[in-house]
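haha ok so turns out i had the wrong file open the whole time. this is the CORRECT one, sorry everyone. sequence first:
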Amino acid sequence: MKATEGEGYVKVDCVDKEFDVECNPRYGFCINHNRFVPIRLMDVPGLVPGASEGKGMGNQFLDSLNEADALIHIIDVSGSTDENGNQVEKLTHDPEKDIKFLENELDQWYLRILKKGWEKFSRTVVQTNLDIKKALAKQLSGLRVNEEIAQESIKSLNLSHNPTTWSNEELLRLARELRKKTKPVIIAANKIDVEGARFNFERLRGKYEMTACSAEIELALREAAKHDLIKYIPGEDYFEIKKENEGRLSFDKKRALNFVEEFLEENKNTGVQDVLNKIVFEKLKYIAVFPGGVNNLKDSQGRVIPDCFLLKENSTVLDFAYKLHKDLGDNFIKAITVRDKLARGREYKLKNRDVIEIVAKK
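then structure:
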């Protein structure tokens, strides 16, 4: 079984309403001034206890995780799925076991990579008087460890600057710290709608960063909206049955929608959109930036505010210019923040929901 790729969407307040226009996204979509920007998702199934030792599809799946910037660990918080993926009686499986299993496999995976050739590496660092943070960053660049992350991890663990003295326990602690910094994880506590699941969620939420979710209810809402039965904006705490369709609803559909309505009243939303937004904007610290002109918000094909880009926090307008096109970056003159029409130099740091015009040499 291979990892499969798909597309998800983060939700951003669209800037179109501020300019009294209606946008036409090239990618993603916009509902009632809520912009849904596509992100790449990868489903990595098949992890089993001992994967870091090569069991099951083992290392193949763990290594495929390295493509990801962050991880969403989906657990069955109702306890009705065991560690092998089999259905069991609800509340009979402890979902904390699944959380600990994944954390341990990830830590062991990092430790395996860290310890590969460790003795030779650590001796070389000492003998040639290398800066440990630089050496470690170079050694683990494949895991996206940079000098800053290496330095912070060494300092927080109070490790000696002589890596030849680090014990196996210290190496494991370092592997865990590096994993947390380079592969942030959010736990999606799915099936919160199942009776009794809330007990498990409340029991675990103080120990782990979790978001309560119901993929089944989110899917039901999406399907009802797709068939034009309701108006629904993903991530919102309500939906609206279209008046012209009330007569089309069967008794079973009305009963199902009543259950969904009660769920939303209690839980605020299904949690699915929250998970995607949290991982992108809180964990990875991305911001949304819209390209546009001071005198024209349309592209060459007449689409209004067609694009919205996700960039790392502290990105500059020059970074944004290169994101749009290499020629714009190479020939950058200035940027203009469209709301206030002010000229900005290349070091201007972008703010979330900025609308930016890039001026470049022709």
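The first helix runs from residue 58 to 64.
again sry for the mixup
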